[in-house]
Structure formats: structure tokens, C-alpha cells
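Notes on consecutive records. When two proteins share a document, each keeps its own sequence and its own C-alpha cell line. Never mix them. Below: protein one.
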Amino acid sequence: MALDKIGIAKRIAQELQNEWYVNLGIGIPTLVANYIPEGIEVEFQSENGLLGMGAFPFDGEEDADLINAGKQTVTIMDGGVIFDSATSFAMIRGQHVQLTVLGAMEVAQNGDIANWKIPGRMVKGMGGAMDLVASAENIIVAMMHTNKKGESKLLSKCSLPLTGVGCVTRVVTNLAVLEIKDNQFHLIERAPGVSVEEIKAATAGDLVVPNEVPEMKI
């Protein structure tokens, strides 16, 4: 059975390591903050100027002045700080963030990512995405394996305008966990109940499959 968005976020949360600074992009990545493993302490950073971002607030407890980069209301942890965008991007560009989690429309087998624009559609801009992909050394993409038409989003080459080149290290989808290395997708885990054959059929790029592929533990 394929994962839903929460399942993807839970699996990515398992990648967190103690005392990391982590940037969460818009969409599925924001959910990761709700599923921090027990015994792990991380600091979530939002490029609009927030360090120490917490989980989403409960209904009725929202503070309209406390938002993330996607304009969603969030909470702030004890000791969290708010600062200007210049300081925030100095932190990003200075490579002080150990993990960046982003959504994407397409990922190529060489690690290219397209996540900001579909030609012909109006967009406000790419926000901090270009700075994040240019500066981060550890980028995990959270996305659905295929688009609404059932077409693969894991490609040999991106067809949409690129956000970054050769920067993605790992992809977690509703079907699988894949590592990008040697210009190929390497299948690491499969979603519970999902077969290797289903993953192969949904992956347009080159896919390396080991003899045994364990199921994700969510």
C-alpha cells in the first residue's frame, strides 16, 4: 500500500540526527516537524527568519504573526528565535544547515531538481529554494512518485526549469526510498505492500535494484 503524505513525512523524520539544524520546505516537508523520533533534538529553520520552529498549532491556537516560509501558522519551541531574512540566508549560504527537505515536481537521476515553476503558469518566484539547493550538501526530496496523470516524476533528465543541479542525495516518495549516486536511482526501501515491480514501472530514470529490498518501517 502506497504511503500518504504523513507516511512520507514520518519516514523522512527517521533521517534526523541529534543536534542537526534542518530546513523544511513548503508542502510535505513541513509535516516532518510533527514526527521527530524520541530522543532526537533538532532545530528547524525557516528561511523567512525563524529558528526553533515547532509542530503545527492545534485548531484555535494559531498565531497569525508566527508563520513559516509557506505562510502557514506554526509554533516556536522554547528558546526559539526570530530574525531578519539577511541573517536567515547567511545561515543557509554559510552551510550551517545539516539537512534540507524539499518538495519537487521532478528529480533527475543525476540529482537535478525542478520544484519552482511550470512554464505557462503564474508563480510568485522560487523563494529561498535556489539558495537552499546551492548551499546544502544533504538534500532529501519528499514527493509523490508520479504526477496526477500517472507519469513518473523520477526521470533520466528533468523537463521543467531547474532549481538546482546535481544536488539531491535522497528521495522519499509514496512508493520508495531512493538514494542518488553514480548518476542513477538506487532503491533502498519500498513502502509497505508495494512491490519492486510497481516501483520499476513508476520510475522513468535508471533504477538500480538490489537482490533484497526491505519494507519501510513507519
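Protein two starts on the next line and is unrelated to protein one.
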Amino acid sequence: MPQAGYHPGRSWAVHMDEQLPLIAGITRVAEETPTVRTFEFDRKFSFTAGQFVMVWIPGVDEIPMALSSESAITVQRVGEATKALFSLREGDKIGLRGPFGTGFPKKGRTLAVAGGVGAAPLLPLAKEGYVTEFLLGARTGSELLFRGILGECTRLSLATDDGSAGHKGFVVELMNGMDLQEFDQICCCGPERMMSAVLRAADAKGCADGCFLSLHRYMKCGMGVCGSCSIDPGGLRVCREGPVFQGNLLRNSEFGRYARDASGRKKKV
């Protein structure tokens, strides 16, 4: 497993003022699952899997979204901003700032663990050949994101809450009986309670330092200025020091317990 002190580089390949969105045209909208769509646009970013862009939906809001390819974001409909995004079609415009933050390391034998739309930022890592084994989970079989593509890229195991595909149960249960020491790192993205369970499983086997997890937090600026995405107790900013954090940095933090809403009030994850 990698040693503590992971400091991934950042990519700023699209040259723009960080404070101003670059206007991009939507070239394709693909329905991936009943609740998830991919929006392709006419701009390409050089990025590391796990980095994100701030997506501006004119007249609605600006939200952080991980890149699922050099020219696409993959979105689950969960709130007002994503509802507005789902109303857009080919030819419509959005604003983009970034890419921002840290991505997943690219080294050695990698175990990827994803829940729901968390498969999106891990997809580029798998397509580039960096994932040795991929554990993919969802509520039901129809929500298993990128199942076909991932099956072509790496060894894929499935889990669904209702048992409609693969193992019946949580995706973290697929780690039971696995020798995690066989992997150089574990890369994870999905619901925070799921990721917390992955970190606990890795920690129990002495692998927390080699676990890399992508956090989602409310963001205003995306540039490390406003502090709205800082995590307790150390004040690490998800938009700058994250969104991908090494497991040992999260052991004694708010991770898996609570986050903060737009007003700064704590809410359980």
C-alpha cells in the first residue's frame, strides 16, 4: 500500500480565469440509467480521474460535478440544479470552471469500489487500464452505472440491494474474504456511508493509508476561498486538498458522520 504523504498533482489544462465560467455547448445527452444521464460538451479538459468542474446552469445554480471523461459529466437527478440540468438538450449551453482538486493516484494494482453514480469519476481510471478489479454496487440492477463498459475494462463484480444483479447486499460486502494486501491501493467513490464502511474494512486489514476516497461537500466557490467545503476538525478543503483524500486523513474527521448544508449547519450523512 502507498505510504502517507500522498500529494497528487493538479491539472489546469483549460486556460481560463478560475472565477469566470467557460461557456460550453451540449453535444449529446445519454440516458445511462433511469436516474442518471451523461452530458457531453464541445470542450475537452486534460484532467486526472477524480477531479471536478464547477457546472453553471444559467439562471439556476452552480454545482460541482466530477468529470466522467475529458468532455463529459455524468449526473444523477437529486435536486433543483440537477433537475434543471436534466431539462437541457443538445445545443443548449452550460458554464464550466476547472478542473479543480486532486484526483486518484495511478499506480500499481488498484481495487476500485463504487456505489451508484460514484462510478462516474472512477470510469476514466478503469478505461485507462489502471483498475485491476472493480466492485460496483447500486440499489437495483437497472441502476448499475457503466456496467457494460467496466466489464470490458477490468474484472467486475456486482452487488445490488435487492439482489436483482450480482450479490444481494451492500457493495462493501464483496470485500469480505478478499486479501486487500494484494492491492497497492483502493479507490472509492459513492454514498458517504458506503465509503465510510469501505474505509473501516480497509483499516481493519491495515490498508487505510492506501485507501483513496472522493468526498462530496457543498461548495460555493470551488477555489478554496470561501471555506464552505472545509471538513472538521482540521479544515481541509474538499475543493483544494480533495475531493480525493487518503484514508488516514479521514479517520478522525467528520467523514461518515456529518456534513454541512448551505447555511453551515451540520446534517447526518
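For the record: The chain has two domains: 22-100, 110-268.
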